[in-house]
Amino acid sequence: MIYERVALIGLGLIAGSMGLRMKRDGLVGEVVGTARSAETRDVAVALGLCDRVTEDAAAAVAGADLVVLCVPVGAMEDVAAEIGPHLAPGTTVTDVGSVKRAVIEAVAPHLPAGVHFVPAHPLAGTEHSGPRSGFPELFERRWCLMTPGAETDPDAVSRLSDLWTAMGSRVDRMDPDHHDLVLAVTSHAPHLIAYTMVGVADDLGRVTDSEVIEYSAAGFRDFTRIAASDPVMWRDVFLTNKDATLEILGRFTEELFALQRAIRTGDGAMLHDYFTRTRAIRRGIIEAGQDIDAPDFGRSTGR
Ligand SMILES: NC(=O)c1ccc[n+]([C@@H]2O[C@H](COP(=O)([O-])OP(=O)(O)OC[C@H]3O[C@@H](n4cnc5c(N)ncnc54)[C@H](O)[C@@H]3O)[C@@H](O)[C@H]2O)c1
Ligand SMILES: O=C(O)C(=O)C[C@]1(C(=O)O)C=C[C@@H](O)C=C1
Predict the structure, then answer these.
(1) Do residues 163 and 208 share a domain?
(2) Cβ-count burial of 126 within 10 angstroms (0-12 exposed, 13-18 middle, 19+ buried)?
(3) Considering 42, 73, 185, 280, which has the largest number of Cβ atoms within 10 A of its Cβ?
(4) Residue ranges of the Prephenate/arogenate dehydrogenase domain (predicted)?
């Protein structure tokens, strides 16, 4: 048993998946959940993702040796302020937020001395949200990036790492600013581009009433899946990872203009070279065993 009592604050996709996994595999003694709405609390108990629920977060953290903040990034500070006075020394507090620097700045000032803060981010999710969307295999073979400060108790870090490993993740450590830049490239900007592309199609007035849906090619369908992601979560991601996202979008725009020019001037060689380079990146991901959606990670098919 890795922890005696885990408190999950905010019972959505990530907390639900953690709770189901911890319960299924007996990784912790007790899971206590807290959510603002009575309906969410009832669903959480009915689904068995926690042993019991409390109405307020302060009650949930009492006696917990691990507290996991699973709310949108913009809500982390309010939750930390609420639970801070009720945390006992020796407790580990972690989060699962998609942005790390802003969460550290929002949460750390509210934690009393003796509490270990180990920020983390599982690189796993879906476009669905809420407790019903959780499933215990969500973190299987996915990275979990931890961004603790240099002064953080190493035992607290390795115990949390053990929990993520037991939930199926591969764990790595990163500097928080570096995390935010990497995720701006791999997750945040791509989401914004998907949102934009679906918005463009919608502006053409055909998304809902027929052709775009009826004749939707795989590329656009993938965009619509991503663009169906939770509006609150993604609003908060962009507001709190502003600098890195703007930096990447600036570079994206430059590349887009270069491709636009190649199309206008009929520069087929430029387009061919560009697409050859990007294809190699996809193959690199597969060879590194990162394409977890491919049945055999693509190794035999060479996809
Ligand atoms: N969905 C993903 O793909 C994904 C992946 C990795 C990390 N994350 C991060 O995990 C966190 C949770 O995301 P999720 O997908 O589980 O979201 P979710 O919408 O499924 O769940 C979030 C829960 O937090 C609750 N909540 C919101 N504000 C609150 C507040 N002020 N106080 C208490 N509860 C509050 C909501 O009611 C909801 O039940 C976010 O910080 C997100 O950035 C999400
Ligand atoms: O698969 C998806 O639906 C996701 O968008 C998951 C995804 C991602 O970009 O990979 C989204 C946000 C997270 O912080 C981590 C994972």
Answers:
(1) no
(2) middle
(3) 73
(4) 4-293
Span 240-290, pLDDT tens digits: 999 999 999 999 999 999 999 999 999 999 999 999 999 998 888 888 776
Domain count along the chain: 2
**Ligand 2: centre distance to CA 143 (Å):** 11
Q: Is 224 in the pocket of ligand 2 (CB under 6 A)?
A: no
By alpha-carbon position, which residue is closest to atom 25 of ligand 1?
10
The answer, yes or no, to whether ipTM is higher than 0.95 is yes
Identify whether 23 is part of a domain: yes
Residue 302 falls inside a structural domain: no
Q: Which residue's CA lies nearest to atom 8 of ligand 2?
A: 187
Ligand 2 proximity of 125 Cβ (cutoff 6 Å) = yes
pLDDT in tens, 148-164: 999 999 999 999 999 99
CA of 189 to the centre of ligand 1 (A): 19
Cβ atoms 99, 119 nearer than 8 A: no
Range of the domain at 204: 178-266
Residues 256 and 196 reside in one and the same domain: yes
Q: Which residues are CB-neighbours of 5 under 8 A, at least 6 positions away?
A: 28, 29, 30, 31, 32, 63, 64, 65, 66
Tell me: do 42 and 142 sit in the same domain. Answer: yes
